[in-house]
Amino acid sequence: MFKLETFFNPQSGEISDALKSLTQNNGRSASCVGVPATTPCTTQTTNLDSSIAGQLFEQSIVGIASPTYGSFTFGRQNTLLADGIAKYDAQGASQAFSLIGLSGTTAGGGDTQDRRLDSSLKYIANFSGFHLGALYKFNGASGSANTAEQAQVGYEFAGASIDGYYAHVNDAVSASAISAADMAVLPAGFAPDKSLAATISDNTTFGVMANYSLGAPKFFAGYEHIKYVNPTDPLAAGFDDIGGYKLAFVSNTAFPNAKILQVFWAGVKFAVNSSFDLTAAYYGYSQNAYGAGADAGCSSTVSGTCSGTENAVSFSADYRFTKRFDAYAGIMWTQVKNGLANGYDLNTSTVDPTIGLRWRF
User: Fold this and answer.
1) Which DSSP category does 51 fall into?
2) pTM, full prediction
3) With contact defined as beta carbons under 8 Å apart, do 182 and 249 qualify?
4) Partners of 136 in the β-ladder
5) If you count DSSP H runs as helices and E runs as strands, how many of each does the chain have, helices first?
């Protein structure tokens, strides 16, 4: 078996590249603090980190599969956690209606770049209802962080399915745009359109996810506990990140205390008939206070290291005209508070409607 998967922007035809959106904001202001009233509050445009960084193939795997013994695959591929999110999220990891679909933090075990992993060996199997999975990412792969491992075990019975997950990543990369101050001292040899700032951490995740079908309604729920600590093997400036980008400014000491991020969600999908589905879901983040000094124990917006929360609620409807053609519409409300609202100078809550048509090839 093999799989090649490419993401592209249908408006431009370009290969999708989230990290390009970061470099386009290098040196731009992200805050309203200190900006003169005669100028725009911020010059920064939308940007985000991702595992999608302009690679020709977002998944590129080869392997063998057996209905009796399971499958072994090798290459760049989705992690076990990413597969679990897609299965156990009522909104199917939708980027329009799901917090854990839009953000790769949960599927990546703490950082979105680890939602897919290069040079990884993956095994999955189903034995009489028992789920088993294991993944290992080898060290030294060009354009990727260091080693990673994941494990999965679960069971299906009487319309229910449940899985437990463990994941650990060494030297996880959380990339960001370079500040104006750092751009002024960008070292020679670093191209502004290929250089990024980054925070490095060792991440450990435990999770449990489940769903249960009662026929027309199907219920979903999940929980992840993600722990971030300073890396055992710090990365130096100049490290080659995914997609051919370089880390020009690297922080290996962002976690004076362990950061604990708890992610939880629940939802229900109701099949009105064979063509029409209605879905409702809730998602939540809860972060501890992990700063030191003046920020120790804080629970305000003064710092991103303060304790904080994020909540999201979404509703969607999907109607299938044919096997390959459907229409969907929905809305998602999100709100951030305290430490997770740090840097949100204009709005701490949003309501975002989405409507679209989709053709599946």
Assistant:
1) S
2) 0.92
3) yes
4) 121, 149
5) 4, 16
